[in-house]
Amino acid sequence: MSEEFINKHIKVTGIVQGVGFRPTVFAYASRHKLGGWVLNSSQGVEIEVSGSPDAVSAFVCELRSSPPTHAVIEHFEVKELPDHPYPNFEIRNSTDQENNFVPVPSDLAICADCVSELFDPANRRYRYPFINCTHCGPRYSIIKAIPYDRPSTTMSGFDLCPDCAREYHDPTDRRFHAQPIACPVCGPKVWFQDSGNAVVEGEAAIARARELIQAGNIVAVKGLGGFHLFCDASKPEVIERLRSRKHRNGKPLAVMGFNLVNVNPYILLNEVEIKLLQSPAAPIVLTEPTERGKEILSLIAPDQSRIGLMLAYTPLHLLLLEPAPGFPSLLVATSGNLSEEPICYTQEEAISRLSSIADGFLMHDRPIHHAIDDSLTQVLHLENTQEYPIRRARGLNTLPIKVPEGLQVLAAGAELKSTFCLARQGRAFLSHHLGDLQNQETLSAYEHAVAHDQSLYRIQPELVSCDMHPDYLSTRFAQDFANARDLPLLRVQHHHAHLAACILDNALDPQEPVIGLTFDGTGFGSDGSIWGGEILMGNCRGFERAFHLQPIPQPGGDLAVREPARMALSYLLSAGYSSEELRPELSLYEFLGEERARVITAQIKGNLNTPLTSSMGRLFDAVSSLIGLYHTVSYEAQGAAALEKLAVSGVQDFYKIDFDDGVINQVALFPQILKDLRNDLSPHLISTKFHNAIAQVSLTCLIALREQYKINKVVISGGVWQNLYLLKYTWALLKASGFTVYTHRRVPANDACISLGQVAVALAQSKR
């Protein structure tokens, strides 16, 4: 062959299927007049091109620098081949090799082009609730198997009409191989049914749902990954009815708006928040309310200072929230479930479980293969403005995290904010948020998700890791899974997993020692007690417990989590106070009542069902009860959230806490707080001084460790660090003292990161 002609083979791995990679390759190859082919394989995308050296080089350069918008490239490999001319460039059928796999794409919010078509009367998909293209629409929620082709999705039951088939097979069309492609002729349908099973279809169904919402009713809507419950966010009586029916008391509710213009009167947004809201992941973003928005905030999140906002991310949502005179600008959009149960995702489930909540149902017949909730995130302003996730789910769950090469691992996670994690070939796949693993319904959803993702990523675990807590359902699942397959089981200490997760989240060396500020509510300790206020030293292989809060009796065990007054009483007794001297001045005694306070006191003194805890979360609970915020809570960390809301920026004063022989004497806080209460210091200043005290004692401990061990890197993990006041104040103190500080960026700081940490520890220890 001529020297003016070469062949090259290109293999691209990562999230490269379902994101328009093949049509992009086709367009670039055509532009550079190259022959060859492109196909999806079970490893990624494979390409062969032939042409002049300059043209091939230009093609490779363009593909490297300008891949499809939603692609996430991990490896881009180019090899020269023997010369072989191709008369043209073609897109070939997908190939599959057993045991190979490729990361699957996440569900994507509707793109601008599809929004334009949705509201264009001249377009054949005008007002069609399931409009999508290569750049948007369902992905993970409809995938049954890989490679990602239409027959392997829940769209396989919808035969393409001639117009859709033409688009689907045209490499120059925006809908080329868009697997969920559909139109009003051949695609899914929408209908509305009320409790009497009366049915209207199409546009009339959406109109009926809007009428009910506007009239103050609650409507269950089948969305992309499951059902939402929608209602008017501005009507107190409707919110109260929703909370009562859903058994969701004071827990925050999210809201949805049509677009940025529509939500502007209620929300203050910065550039990063706008970017997140309009991103393909379209998560719920915690945002600052305007004065008008504070009225909404008081209804949907009374203990919070920010509103959880998302924008309509599917065509059905856009049609449901379309602005019109009298129609509310913000709708509550909360998960379609009873409190603590998994989200409903089939019509049958919704009718069975949501009929007692919803006044009507907006349904559709596009099957959801795998339920998935909305992601929840926030923006953190430190040295740079960064995302700080709270719940990693729709739009984010399939993004792999780089881990060391090693065995294939299944990590079972914790109990609260439950996730699992699968690892293979240097990539970890953290599951979407599955909820609190405390009932059979959630356990069933968890088991289904493990089986689904294991099949999807073709992972056959060689090692299983889990939490040390013997009563976690995730631990029991891991034991059964490992026993059934004769696999080794590694039990990982909870806070070591937090430390390891933050190491991987920041791509640090797994073997380099760091200091870990790991503060949360509950974690089973190596000594069998309940940990939660831990300063660790270690890496992914192991750790030492350098400092911890003084262990305090937790009367009633888990009951004290639901009744912070119990922890407040325990702390007061530990500080040397008696009920008799404090009863007249503290409301927690009025809540408990004389007899119950006496019984709990005897329980603590007699060491009856009072496990010791060093939990930072329980300390926050106790202080919230002490100053009269919450003596009983309806959801985890409700008192701590209210305490954070009171804290005032700019105040430098703090309570004094000392430590001795690795034990932090946080009990010393209580005489100081009582003194301020007696002097009528405002709750705002008491909360601020308390928060500042935790930051200051953390700094003092870390300086002592640095002086002794010469470790300067600090990782911050654990659910307590979702408290942004505490996080920012602590970070500022540490940075000013010369520490290098790492926070979570891609995975939550709460227990959702535990399974990733378990993978990190498993891989590190398996290499010993």
Helix/strand class: alpha/beta
The count of helical stretches stands at: 25
Q: What general form does the structure show?
A: globular
Total number of domains: 4
Assigned CATH class of the largest domain: Alpha Beta
Q: Distance N terminus to C terminus?
A: 53 Å
In the predicted model, the low-confidence regions spanning at least 5 consecutive residues are none
Portion in beta strands: 15-25%
The quaternary state of the protein chains shown equals single chain
Topology-level CATH name of the largest domain: DHBP synthase
- As a percent range, the share of helical residues equals 25-40%
Q: What Rg is obtained from the alpha carbons, in whole angstroms? A: 28 Å
Mean pLDDT: 94
The overall strand count is 33
Molecular structure report:
- The chain has four domains: 6-91, 2-Layer Sandwich (Alpha-Beta Plaits); 105-370, DHBP synthase (Alpha-Beta Complex); 400-506 and 749-765, Nucleotidyltransferase, domain 5, CATH 3.30.420; 515-742, ATPase, nucleotide binding domain (Nucleotidyltransferase, domain 5), CATH 3.30.420.
- The mean pLDDT is 94.
- Strand 8 and strand 9 form a beta hairpin.
- The strands form six sheets. Strands 6, 7, 8, 9, 10, 11, 12, 13, 14, 15 and 16 form an eleven-stranded mixed sheet that branches. Strands 30-31-27-26-25-32-33 form a seven-stranded mixed sheet, sandwiched between helices. A six-stranded mixed sheet has the order 19-22-21-20-23-24, with helices on both faces.
- The chain has 768 residues and is an alpha/beta fold.
- The chain contains 25 helices and 33 strands.
